[in-house]
């Protein structure tokens, strides 16, 4: 086994836009990722001490899907037993809408390949990692270092964007958790909404290609509003009011999580003041806040 290899996948702050369209193959679900710099999952292999052979393990022990990803990919590639423990070091909160499970799965799947063949070309690593991820759950495409549009139920990349939005997200967690797998099993679909989502998809694609940080935030707000009947955000009214007070560009939410937040951009000349005052106003309403930086692939 080569020298220690660490694989890293970033989490997200919900999604910029999530919905579905209707076409020749019926309803097709999509999302636009909102990866953030501050959150990440890292995976490494640690050999067991001593001479006694042990089974492959994982820590924390509750990361069963990540362990399954490693085992599935090992079997498909014909790798022998691995007398190691997979260590996941993640600061991504679980069951909140930060894509914690997907990040763990993709970091671990990449580790499986990199630990045996570190020189494997990146597109091959990504394809193999996604091949097991889609067997385990719906999820975001997190293998692009910026915003990406993807087919949510297959992890298939639709478009990888290079942008200059310079967003800061001031987020609140409404508490509790959402079991994403169960939530998506009960997802109703509507032809009228599908038409609206198709329009928003086109609008957001145009905005991202043009680095239109204002228009992109407006689409995020519309997505939050459209989804509020599916998973209501009790903070949405407060966020909209504070958006008007502090000149935030829009609202971003986790469509299957407990997160909601306001969007600012470092393109705004008084960005830092707006963010500080936004946090202060949210905290005066009883919310705990965190700030996140949108992770972007540069042009």
From TrEMBL:
The keyword Transferase applies. It holds the Pfam family GHMP_kinases_N. This is GHMP kinase N-terminal domain-containing protein. Keywords: Kinase, Transferase. It comes from Streptomyces auratus AGR0001. InterPro entries: GHMP_kinase_N_dom (IPR006204), Ribosomal_Su5_D2-typ_SF (IPR020568), Ribsml_uS5_D2-typ_fold_subgr (IPR014721). It comes from the Bacteria. Residues 67-134 form the GHMP kinase N-terminal domain. One of its GO terms (molecular function) is kinase activity.
